[in-house]
Specification:
about 140 residues; alpha+beta; six-stranded antiparallel sheet; three-stranded antiparallel sheet; 4 helices; about 15% helix
Amino acid sequence: MSGYRKQSIPIDEAKQIIGQYQFGLVYQLEKILLGTVEKIQSEIIWEECLEARFFSEEKELHIFDYNGTYRAVCVEDEEKSNEEKSSKYVLEGKQIKLSSQFHEQSGFDFYKVKKYISYDEDGQAVVELTRLTGLC
């Protein structure tokens, strides 16, 4: 019970659906873009993109280079019952302060992450996945 679904998406399709996400973090050769997708989308130069993450509270799209080929993976929260929502498998809401450079660029002070927890064969908790969930 991981709390999320992970799915590979064709890269051309991934580029077309970035508008479904609220925020973006894009590493390009010349600069890093951070902010709302609406604000940064026109500045993305896909030929210079090294890695990109588009995210909102419930999902993240990760675009990255793998051995010279771009790939895209979408991670979405699984639907949960009320009982499962209080589960120990997900740690939400950790806020991490942005540097002054990214604060000035984006207008936000913090980014938020969600961690998905699983247990190894010895029963010890391990962070299985960490993803971005928002800017605030």
